[in-house]
Amino acid sequence: MAKRARLIYNPTSGREEMKRRLPEILQRLEYGGLETSTHATIGEGDAAVAAADAIDRGFDVIIAAGGDGTLYEVINGMAEKERRPPLGILPVGTTNDFARALGIPKHWEFAVDLILQQHTRKIDVGKVNQRYFINIAGGGSMTELTYEVPSKLKTMLGQLAYYMKGLEKLPRLRPTELSFVSKEKHVHEEVMMFLICNSNSVGGFERLAPDASLSDGLLDVFILRKCNLAEFIRIVSSALRGEHMNDPHVIHFKTQSIQVTSPDYVQLNLDGEFGGTLPCTISVLPDHLHIFVDESGTSTYK
Ligand SMILES: Nc1ncnc2c1ncn2[C@@H]1O[C@H](COP(=O)(O)OP(=O)(O)OP(=O)(O)O)[C@@H](O)[C@H]1O
């Protein structure tokens, strides 16, 4: 019997590619043995509901088509379920950090073929209170910018919208008093921001956590200590080159679980989306999801 897949797609992702490609994608999946029905998301939170619903209805495979925002929602819809079918990804968004981290091709035909090959990889999932992430959890003034970029602007300008928003934000940078408690380390000081990485592919900063692995059962914690604007710019540019690890302003360690608290109001950013506020406990759920990836390990995000 043919397997049944549920394709959950965001019609507004990227430059609205799914709207144009859907008939061809469905045909290719069908020929490849996946009987596929679709759910077009209608707004925020809908992909999470659709993914949970698809599991309850017994689908064998879930496919998320969109950017990191859609994927984040689909994973949140799946993570608390006992049965978690394998997940395929069609990276058609503006930012596809996660697909990049797994070497999932950007071209839709190759991405569909990869799902049809049915080779999966187990990956860790990050958990923050009752929410889940795959790439990164962050907090502090810089990390608040991603959900301030309006979706319409993203559709028009793509990645550039983030950088414009980031520059606009620089003069408003301020440190926050934070406490981090984990088995490995306790930190209590004023910090500019913190990033807790599950993968090594973070918004164009591929060298931020060079040895972070999606399968090591650990999170990579980066804390940027209080600094001035000039130092901040210098450290961010050295992070782009992967030369930040020995900077005295940067604290780095690995852990399975960490508690983060602050006397201030601090928002959390999970995979680029608003993820609630502090306090929180951030932990890793080892091998929590099965994702379709390239068996030979040769395909790249292109
Ligand atoms: N029909 C819709 N109209 C508008 N927004 C939607 C719709 N469906 C889903 N969304 C929202 O769009 C957000 C961004 O989606 P997604 O990440 O797939 O696209 P993107 O263009 O790559 O943007 P991002 O830069 O966040 O990756 C999702 O978090 C979701 O809440």
UniProtKB/TrEMBL annotation:
<keyword id="KW-0418">Kinase</keyword>
<keyword id="KW-0444">Lipid biosynthesis</keyword>
<dbReference type="InterPro" id="IPR005218">
    <property type="entry name" value="Diacylglycerol/lipid_kinase"/>
</dbReference>
<keyword id="KW-0594">Phospholipid biosynthesis</keyword>
<dbReference type="InterPro" id="IPR017438">
    <property type="entry name" value="ATP-NAD_kinase_N"/>
</dbReference>
<keyword id="KW-0067">ATP-binding</keyword>
<comment type="similarity">
    <text>Belongs to the diacylglycerol/lipid kinase family.</text>
</comment>
<dbReference type="InterPro" id="IPR045540">
    <property type="entry name" value="YegS/DAGK_C"/>
</dbReference>
<keyword id="KW-0460">Magnesium</keyword>
<keyword id="KW-0808">Transferase</keyword>
<keyword id="KW-0479">Metal-binding</keyword>
<keyword id="KW-0443">Lipid metabolism</keyword>
<feature type="domain" description="DAGKc">
    <location>
        <begin position="1"/>
        <end position="132"/>
    </location>
</feature>
<dbReference type="InterPro" id="IPR001206">
    <property type="entry name" value="Diacylglycerol_kinase_cat_dom"/>
</dbReference>
<dbReference type="Pfam" id="PF00781">
    <property type="entry name" value="DAGK_cat"/>
</dbReference>
<protein>
    <submittedName>
        <fullName>Diacylglycerol kinase</fullName>
        <ecNumber>2.7.1.107</ecNumber>
    </submittedName>
</protein>
<dbReference type="Pfam" id="PF19279">
    <property type="entry name" value="YegS_C"/>
</dbReference>
<dbReference type="GO" id="GO:0004143">
    <property type="term" value="F:ATP-dependent diacylglycerol kinase activity"/>
</dbReference>
<keyword id="KW-1208">Phospholipid metabolism</keyword>
<keyword id="KW-0547">Nucleotide-binding</keyword>
<dbReference type="InterPro" id="IPR016064">
    <property type="entry name" value="NAD/diacylglycerol_kinase_sf"/>
</dbReference>
<dbReference type="InterPro" id="IPR050187">
    <property type="entry name" value="Lipid_Phosphate_FormReg"/>
</dbReference>
